[in-house]
Amino acid sequence: MAHPPMTDPAIVFENAGVHVLDPAADRRPDEATSRKILSDVSCTLTEPTVTVIGANGSGKSTLLQLINGLIPVDEGRVMVDGLDVADRGREVRRRVGFVFTDPAAQLVMPTPLEDVELSLKHLVRDKRERRTRALAVLDELGVADLAERSVYELSGGQRQLVALATVLAVDPAVLVLDEPTTLLDLANREKLRGVLADLVSRRGVRTILSTHDLEVAQDAERTLLIHHGRLHADGAPAEVVAAYRAVVAEESRAVESGAPRARE
């Protein structure tokens, strides 16, 4: 499915913020305060590959889920290729594919083939054509031989590739991956890195992914560091990774000295 061309393809965050209700310990249950998860995030992402790093709970996953409206913004706005996610979420979701950390969150059918066919159900009405296209996507990712295996028999790496196939089947313009290498061993991590690089170069899919793997983080043209819910650093991967190491070292020294940590 070809997407309409965009004059300025970009993911734009304009003072984006997200907060949740946070019941206060010293208040009645019906009284609540608001806790910000993300605050004042502003940036325009045009690069083919962008990585997002930061500690657990920093807001990385929340940032990614703003891109296709899985989580709505409470402040500011998010735009994808000129489309406001809040107002035109359905169109945005046609352009943006999302791959979760745990592929089990996406694989709902008994076999990989059936899962990919399910993704294509509303796009391809003819069953035979749907099966042909599903097999083609699995073959593209090197897992066609697993098409009719039980998903419960697959390794973590195989499941991640199948989950990726279910998203690629609908030909997204943007691919968002939330910590895709977390559950993978070294061999499967390297395979996934190769697959993603190939998708960028051959299909022209723009990718944005979060990761704790600082080597994977540098497989990009640009890296964002989310720290305590804010965009702390933004730039060349090596520089942002160095900034992250400096932040971690500073907080470790503060803990050792007994100084209070900054609140998120």
Give a verbal description of the structure.
Belongs to the ABC transporter superfamily. GO terms for molecular function: ATP binding; ATP hydrolysis activity; ATPase-coupled transmembrane transporter activity. This is ATPase component BioM of energizing module of biotin ECF transporter. By secondary structure, the chain is an alpha/beta fold. It has 7 helices and 10 strands. It has a single domain, classed as Rossmann fold. The protein has helices at 60-66, 89-95, 112-120, 127-140, 156-168, 186-203, 237-257, and strands at 11-23, 32-45, 49-53, 75-80, 83-84, 96-99, 174-178, 206-210, 222-227, 230-235. Strands 6-7-8-3-9-10 form a 6-stranded mixed β-sheet, with helices on both faces. A 4-stranded antiparallel β-sheet has the order 2-1-4-5. Strand 7, helix 6 and strand 8 (206-210) form a beta-alpha-beta unit. The model has no long low-confidence stretch (mean pLDDT 90).
List the topology elements:
Elements: E1 11-23, E2 32-45, E3 49-53, H1 60-66, E4 75-80, E5 83-84, H2 89-95, E6 96-99, H3 112-120, H4 127-140, H5 156-168, E7 174-178, H6 186-203, E8 206-210, E9 222-227, E10 230-235, H7 237-257
For the termini, the CA-CA separation is 42 Å
Low-confidence stretches: none
- Total number of β-strand segments? 10
Largest sheet: 6 strands, mixed
What percentage of amino acids are in beta strands?
25-35%
What would CATH call the class? Alpha Beta
Strand order of the largest sheet: 6-7-8-3-9-10
CATH architecture: 3-Layer(aba) Sandwich
Counted by DSSP, the helix tally is: 7
Query: CATH superfamily, called what?
Result: P-loop containing nucleotide triphosphate hydrolases
What is the element string, with H for helices and E for strands?
Answer: EEEHEEHEHHHEHEEEH
What share of the residues lie within helices? 25-40%
Global morphology: globular
Mean pLDDT: 90
How many whole angstroms does the radius of gyration measure?
Answer: 20 Å
What's the CATH topology label? Rossmann fold
Structural class per helix/strand content?
alpha/beta
Number of domains: 1
